[in-house]
Design brief:
The complex is a heterotrimer of chains A (535), B (114) and C (111). Chain A is of the alpha+beta class and 535 residues long. Helices cover 60% and strands 7% of the residues of chain A. Chain B is built from three helices and no strands. Classes of the chains: A alpha+beta (535), B mainly alpha (114), C mainly alpha (111).
Amino acid sequence: MKENFFRSMTWMHTWVGLLVCWLLYLIFYAGTLSFFRDEITLWNQPALHNVQTTDTRIAQQKSQIIAGVKYLQNVAADSQRWGIYLPTQREPQLNYAYEKPRPEGKRFGGWQEHNIDPSTGQTIAQTRETKGGNFFYRLHFDLHYIDVLTARWIVCLASLFMLVALISGIVIHKRIFKDMFSFRANKGSRSWLDGHNVSSVLALPFHLMITYTGLITLIFMLFPYPAMTAYEDGVRGLFNDVLPTNVRSKSSPESAPLANIEGILDHVYTNWPDADLTQISIRDPNKASATITVRASTGTMLRDQTPTLLFNGVDGSLIAKSATELTNTEVFYDSMTALHTGRLANPLLRWLYFLCGIAGCVMIASGCIMWAKRIRERMKKQQTASFGLKLVEGLNLATLMGLPLATCAFFIANRLLPINVAERADKEILAFFLTWLAVALFALFKRATAQWIQLAWLNAVACIAVVLINALTTDGNIISYLLNGQWALFSVDFLCIIFAGLFVIQAKKIPTRAQPKAQRQSSRRAAKTNLQEQQ
Amino acid sequence: MHAQSVKTSQTFSIASKLSHAYQAHSYRIAVVSRFLAAIVGGYVFTAVFSSLLSIILPLKKSDAVLLSISLTIFIYSCVFIWVFAVKSLTKIWITILLTTTGLALILSLLKGWL
Amino acid sequence: MHELLQFSLCLLAFNCFALAKFNHYREVFKTRPNEKQSKQFLLAAWISILLSLVLSVVQHNGYGALLFCGYIAVSLLVLMIFYSFKASWVKIMSVLNITVIMLSGLFLSVF
């Protein structure tokens, strides 16, 4: 491209990065929040706040499953799918769900859930309709309001650009280890460069890993060709070969009594003596084609495929079980997905993931701000900004400051919308996008430093508002969470306060005018002496 | 004779206009072409290469597919970077087209599609 | 306790890497490091970081390597803040760091 390799890589890093940085920021932001998906879902559902996991969680599982099948047989004998979701460390409630009748032409009718407090056995009333953390999880790769497949292709392309930008970034950052610990504050675009370097280097293994494995999670959409070459029926053939429990028989309309669940559970417990089961799903219950799938927790293994047993739902015989011994390649492939989704057993590791995710957001944000700053600095005094520069500055302000504000709006809407309003979950999401749109419109008119400061203050206020409104509308608050050891809820509130603090620092630290440091210090000193004289 | 010279001068002027337009936008055209080579060319090359890999790797069928699938992203990003590192655009297109066709030929011979 | 030991070893390692550099050494000790000191810091850093990696992998297998990457991120963040804004506190931080390593190591070897 350019005269030499180094300059070509610099050129590519700049343009490939700039082209997709806002989309990447959205992906990284939503993905980082998704590490706390279950915690956010719990926070969004105040009716479940006081449900505690019990010490006898695993011992209770058998009786919970038997009661669940009895319950579902009573209320939804002719549903197409049942699910029994057992309490886990992160999701304390017991959930019996069945699929509602499918509307004409739809492949799925939506779940009707029935939540139970496992320690008392009482039904939990007054659950609100919310997407919770699943909203951010879906936003991370399905975006929203556009067709899922198109969205995934766009996300894949952006991720590829990210990977390429990362690799070229390593190539062009010659002094990568020399500058590892330095950050020069208050030096204009120089500081942004330092911020960009530090945030990339400190989580470099994470950035590379998360981008590569992210592409791997969508690989069957991106590159189905190897599977299509090797197998007659393509990707489905590969899945049937690798995952024996994946086979799906055709539904039959003939009715047949459901197999005795106790017999099946006996079979499960002889296979896995002290299993920590997570979910039981029953397809076509009371039909001749019924199947029962039993899944257990992966525990502390670096695995994404859960241990699974598949039973015939009529005679109760075992149809298939997930492979216990994986080949090296299977381990390699499966651990990559596990690395990305980070459904980790260890809370410390989840926090480290979260921190690295934040570093990724900072890396992208500082990158796109730096581009605009550099162009501004190179501009002559009387020169007017080009359309491209204005566009980049507007998108920077709208995306970087708009997303946190929209997230706060999402949380606040969750607490303030009436519980029984129709399509409540969609309205929460609407609040998210309307807020973002408002910030974008604001950025359309003005995007100078003053607007950054105003939005930083607004964000800080919104973060505090989330905590306050939570305390006012539910029967718990951040202090009671701390005292009762409700760590999931405490973390959400605590993070809001931390981010409020960071936004205040941001608002205070942004220099209002582009003036050298020394000059500003002297003016501050002058202001101080003025103040003293007045006193 | 006269008419012919007018005609030649007209075609000449159109050609010169075209070449002028090309010169004015040549940088943009080169950049777009390079991105196309990287994204589309890289994609097709990777697709063919990984398909070939999945049948020639001396492993169990499912393992060979999973391994070649896991490597696709690596191959794709290598091609992407290579496209931006090489100076001559013609060389890039020729290399990509030749290797892809060559690999596709080998693949179809091995699978017996031809 | 295991995690604390692994993390503080990692922090120590990167602190040593930083001190092996001319600029950072001068910021902290106000004198120039000689060749030998730099080499000793580098050696200590490598031993410490390998120890941290080995300990975390032995304890957590696959997740250990991930945890180790996380420790690197946190250590770099901490050191970046100290060296850029509070270079004078680095000495105190290092002493604390070594104390934590000693104590957690002692605790683990006794219990």
